[in-house]
Structure formats: C-alpha cells, structure tokens
Amino acid sequence: MSYPPPDDRLRHLLAQQINCHVDTWKLAFFIAGAIADNPEIRAEIDRIGAAHNTGQHCGDRNCQACFEATTTTA
Ligand SMILES: [Zn+2]
Description:
The protein is mainly α. Helices cover 65% and strands 0% of the residues.
C-alpha cells in the first residue's frame, strides 16, 4: 500500500505539512480535511494547474513553478 493513498492524496499531503506545526496528527488531519473540501481552494488549485498546463503564468506571486520557469528559460 503506497503512501499517501491515491484516493485521499491531497488531504494526506496537506496533513503531513500541517502536522509539523500542530500538536496532534488528528488535528492536522482535521484541518487538512477542511482545506481539501473547500470549494474556493479547490477552484484555485484547478485554476493554477490549468494556467501552468497551457504555459501561462498563473499570476500567483509566490508560485515556485512560475519562478523556476522564468529562471530556467531566460
Ligand atoms: Zn504558477
């Protein structure tokens, strides 16, 4: 069985990251679930992914992928 599980990957990835900053895995997993279920957040992830797939800058000034694209193609 691979980890994170393919059918709950986003939530586990979020929980792993959150877990570094909170006391319990249970709390991390709860917060991750709330983030993963948020329609606005999901829409933004989709929007950023769609922009990158068409070679566009996603417009997020903190975006690591866009930063790397501008420094490697220059
Ligand atoms: Zn980007």
